[in-house]
Specification:
It is a single chain. Helices cover 74% and strands 0% of the residues. The chain contains 8 helices and no strands.
């Protein structure tokens, strides 16, 4: 690992512990894919050509989903780095000073989730953008960082299923539906999900129970 340090690659981890969660998810996905392939082996059809067709279809579909999510994350990363985004950042920071870090975290995470079309992408960008400020505000106001983490995690799945959401596009493709046919129901669910983190914040502020 030390040989790669001169390259100054920010994605290199100093210790395995910092990427343990990522590895556990990867292992779980590999094992579940193998289990699903074994359980559904009779559906693959007969012959090597049919098997390869199914494998190629799955690989192509997964690439499309990955590219959809990656492009949304890249777009959000570029957006927050532009000078024009600074006034928006100042407003969000000011919201934390007036309404508290939890409310600021909910709104910011939802905004970034909508921009990127990805819960994980919106969560990552929101924390890299204002995570330190939220942590300082939370400590100053006696709010546990565990509570802040939970609220941000819940808020990340608020309004992320926007029309360009990679997971949504993949879901509709698998179900054989179009945005026109299914998006009204998705919008209703999205509105309900958007309210959940605010209810959690209100419950915590009223009861102190985390």
């Amino acid at each position: 690992m030390e040989k790669f340090f001169p390259l100054e690659l920010s994605l290199l981890a100093v210790s395995v512990g910092k990427i343990q969660a990522i590895w556990s998810i990867s292992v779980a996905l590999i094992l579940s894919s193998i289990a699903a392939a074994y359980i559904g082996r009779h559906r693959f059809g007969q012959g090597r050509e049919t098997l390869l067709e199914n494998i190629n279809y799955g690989a192509a579909s997964s690439c499309a989903a990955v590219l959809n999510v990656a492009s949304g994350f890249a777009f959000g990363s570029v957006l927050v780095s532009l000078p024009g985004f600074l006034p928006v950042k100042e407003i969000l920071v000011g919201l934390g000073d007036s309404a508290g870090p939890l409310v600021s975290a909910v709104i910011t995470t939802n905004i970034m989730g909508a921009v990127t079309g990805s819960a994980s992408g919106g969560l990552t960008i929101a924390l890299s953008l204002l995570g330190e400020q939220w942590a300082n505000m939370a400590v100053a106001q006696g709010i546990s960082l565990d509570v802040l983490h939970r609220i941000v995690a819940i808020a990340s799945i608020g309004i992320d299923p926007v029309p360009h959401c990679g997971a949504l596009v993949t879901l509709l493709a698998i179900c054989g539906l179009t945005h026109k046919e299914a998006y009204f129901d998705i919008v209703v669910l999205m509105g309900l999900k958007f309210l959940v983190p605010f209810l959690c914040v209100a419950f915590y502020l009223l009861t102190g129970i985390s």
